[in-house]
Amino acid sequence: MTESNEPGESRVSVATRKLTIAIPTFNRNEILRSNLAKLLPQITPECTLLILDNHSPLPVAETLEPLLRQFPEVNFRIVRNVVNVGAGANFMRCFESCDTPWMWLLGDDDEPSQNAIATILTTTDEMPDGVYCNFSSEVIRRPQPLIGHGFRQFMQKFDSYNSMLWVSTAVFRADKLRQNMMDGYEHLYSWSAHLTMVALALKTDEKFCLSDRQIVHYKRHEPEHFWSYIGYVSRMVVNMNLPLTPADRRSWGNILGEVIHPIAILGALAVKIQLGMIERENAVFTIDQICSTGLYYPRSLRKWLEGWTSRILIRFPRLALIVLRSVYRLIHFKPLMKDESFLYLLGREGVIVENGIPRARKPAPKVDKETGLSTEN
Predict the structure, then answer these.
(1) Distance CA 34, CA 54 (A)
(2) Who's near 231: CB < 8 A, 6+ residues apart?
(3) What is the rounded distance in angstroms from the CA atom of residue 198 to the CA atom of residue 51?
(4) Which carries the bigger pLDDT value, residue 17 or residue 303?
(5) Is the per-residue pLDDT at 243 higher than 90?
(6) Mean pLDDT of the chain
(7) CA 281 to CA 279: how far, in whole Å?
(8) What is residue 217's DSSP assignment?
(9) Which regions of the chain carry the CATH code 3.90.550.10?
(10) Cβ-contact 78, 51 below 8 angstroms
């Protein structure tokens, strides 16, 4: 189902529009409305707003209708999927549905900066032959822009995998990247199919930009509203399945390895085993899957030792937690269960800690869509 406004005579024709702001969303209606209230005043006739509702319980169009009515000059489309196709597929549908050269893939929970649209239009006008531009953010600050051509230069200049993974910090030349749509869909399992399409485009010596400008603000959400870190890392190996030379594959792996922390993963899995949230055999499989790909990741002795230590200790989860608690007291001078980063990681894996004692977070009760009442007795 699609809802849109009808283009008026004064509006820029579709053929001459430059930018699509594509927002894939699911069940974050109020957060999306709040962020759109900051974005809509910035949108110019050169832009199209595209919202892909991944079958939210309450249709997004109903929530946004009063707000959108205040901006009749904005070109917009709201497409509601018949079923929830998953986050990755909804992201890919943004590329499919985009009808402008450039696309900003904006997360529904990410807050646009005050002059985001103007910044994007200026930047894309400065590099009409580019395919990808990653902007600065709270994740990475750049003192000056870095511009280059091709995959090799991208590997040399790129400074943050976390920034690349965060789709809202980038704009994509959608009409060129669509040539790699099939490869993107084949890499959906990785949760980062957009990186596949960018990497393949850069292999043909396309132009990229790592900008010192900012278009979005980082907001640290409650961990229960975020994706699983361990789930993502266990899928990263799929990103290595690209037609790369051995040297390029090692460089690509070094970038991917930036976000892998075997000891933190070991601790979280050991806690989940003790709480009965995961079978020990499944935890062993998960950490083996992650750490066995260490061949591709940064070749430091420390990383290698962390990987093999984690693979051994996960088989003895109680011993693993004893070792980790001791290490934290010796190195960090504080208890493991009071380390903010580790607690945040546990939160993303469905574990909360109260008074130093971890427990599984209770799932939210199921609610009847018609009545809004809990279906649980």
Answers:
(1) 19
(2) 191
(3) 22
(4) 17
(5) no
(6) 86
(7) 5
(8) E
(9) 2-219
(10) yes
